[in-house]
Specification:
The protein has 290 residues and is an alpha/beta fold. It has 2 domains: 154 residues, Rossmann fold (3-Layer(aba) Sandwich), CATH 3.40.50.970; 115 residues, Rossmann fold, CATH 3.40.50.920. Helices cover 36% and strands 19% of the residues. Helix 3 runs parallel beside helix 5.
Length: 290
Amino acid sequence: MRGEFAKLCLETVKNDSKSVVMVGDISHFLLRETEQVAPDRFYNIGICEQSMVGMASGMAIEGMRPIIHTIAPFLVERAYEQIKNDIGYQNTEVTIVTVGGTYDYSDLGCTHHCYGDIAMMRLIPNMQVFEPSTPQEFRTLFEKTWGNGLPKYFRLSKEQHSQDFDVEPEVMKVVRESTDNRWVFVSGHVLDDVLESPGIGVIYVPTLSSITKESYLEVSNVIENAKKIYSVENHFTIGGLGDFVSETFNIAVERIGLKRKFLTNYGNFSNLRSDAGMDKQSIIQKLSWI
């Protein structure tokens, strides 16, 4: 995913003279070609995330199209006031791209975790929120929203699912039909885990802020007679996918995700998935409850 981000940055600075790439002391080597091609439009702001947001907003007001990037807790959580006021309130076209959501940086502890970034970004009016889970999904969502005049948030994970299908901004994807009138909405790489639960219909959600009228009508028709609706997300159960589905379709949703607590253990990604009750076995077990 980060490799695809580097490709998109390079292509964007080549093709759009208004584009600017700004980083918070991260990905210097990854984005070295972008810096070489457009040295006057690539800035390492250092560990000054609030300043980076303000600078990006000012550039956008003057007609530039900034991309800002660092890890989720340092950008979304540390600079949230600036994102709210400088990007959201001003409605500036700034593209925020983070890595390290939830516990991707599992061995670095809670200071480098970010369990609620999607919820926080969904609170900001005008903000489009995306969680692509393959490089191709990221490319599609990025290219189809670039230049649309809106602020955007892309949450990239080091994990990805193995499915191959097309996505569109603001469109939910019916991946599998239900055989027992149960349906699950899922975002992120945990799609693969959900698909191992037999019988249940699966709807994939890469956009977590809005939905087109056509997609709304399609999904409403699909779940009309559902006897049980679930959501599964690699995020707090508060404010993320489950809330988005519930408020969009005015339905009760059994939310499967992270509980509101810190994960204080250290280890690899799989260790923390187990600690959080979000490993594959736990997800399948929770989906089996009627």
